[in-house]
Amino acid sequence: MSHLAQHEEWLKELMLKIIVNLGSNVNEARYELCRRNDYIMSNVYFVDVKFKDKKREEVSVILKRPTSDNVKLFYRVDHQFYNEIRFYQMYVRPSDNLPRCFYADDQLPVGSVIALENVNKHGYYSCPYTHDVPLEYTLAAFRELGRFHAKGYVMKELQREKFFDIVRQIKEIRYDTTFGFKKIINLTATRSVEYLRKHGHDEAFCDKMEAVLSNVFDKVMMKTAEPREPLSTLCHGDFTSYNVLFKAENDGQYRAMLIDFALVRYSTPVIDLSTYLYLCGTKETREDRFSEVMQAYYDALKEYLLEAGISDMEKYSYDAFLNDYKKGALFGFVIASLWLGPVNGYGDPQELTSMEFLKVEENMQKKFKEVGGDKISKILADMLLDLKNHDCLKYYFE
């Protein structure tokens, strides 16, 4: 059987199962493949399901399956699909503000697959900004993140055994000693310090930061990603504007919806908050509007907890979350040191993450560390100084 024939047969068998899950006889519906997008780690299919009964609304489905090349092992793609499938099967409830999952399976002979609702018809669309995201989008995203984190706290308080059963099933993707990006992260993290040295900044500060950042994967990333009680909850793990959909409401406000839960993990909120702020947020948001976005996050979280009947709010105080953020904010800066160049349109993400490229250390250093030139280096240097000014670095000098 040809590759094309195998693909068509796979799609046919899968869509028959999805149609049944939609509550329809397979003879009373038909499907149409609208388009296919291929990404680094997944192939995505956009499919419309139409029913003979004209009273039934057409259903738009997004199918995700892993890529078939050797990049799967480096990125642990099978683990990523496993995590997202378990997330939808064990954690998500119909009332959650998430795309509906029509089908999920990681036991098929051809590998994992997830079928989700295409929520465009409900008014949710990708963020038009990949970086320097305007404040109104960031506020909506942080409110939704607050509710998402609060859901984890509620389940942890009220269904503790079930919650930790889910946590135990999560497979580690990034933060262990064998992670392939460890070397690249350590290489790129010192970029800001090198820029500051070149421009005559305080030598003692540069020396201290270089000592931390040259081994940042072990000293910062691994430690920050570890659970710390009582604030550890189920975190998104890849909270960026790429993974948030937005809907414009009638009052001009935005409502957000989180997607893509392959990197979900049990950690404290700072891994999500800092990743978004340093990779996607504007300089103004980080430096001048931080209190506003943090308060929006906390207010949404607190409201969710109180509505669920959680009365012991002392451990969930605003100061507790702020302290957690300050201790771990460097985490998001390190993510930005690696990805800010590509996110700003410098370099080709497909090339930078290809297996051929990643095997060559000289390429890794040159491309990742220099992409975007002094423009990106200065942005990162300003971020590092902002972290210092907001007392987010003192924990590494004690």
TrEMBL record:
<dbReference type="Pfam" id="PF02958">
    <property type="entry name" value="EcKL"/>
</dbReference>
<dbReference type="InterPro" id="IPR011009">
    <property type="entry name" value="Kinase-like_dom_sf"/>
</dbReference>
<feature type="domain" description="CHK kinase-like">
    <location>
        <begin position="114"/>
        <end position="307"/>
    </location>
</feature>
<dbReference type="InterPro" id="IPR004119">
    <property type="entry name" value="EcKL"/>
</dbReference>
<protein>
    <recommendedName>
        <fullName>CHK kinase-like domain-containing protein</fullName>
    </recommendedName>
</protein>
<dbReference type="InterPro" id="IPR015897">
    <property type="entry name" value="CHK_kinase-like"/>
</dbReference>
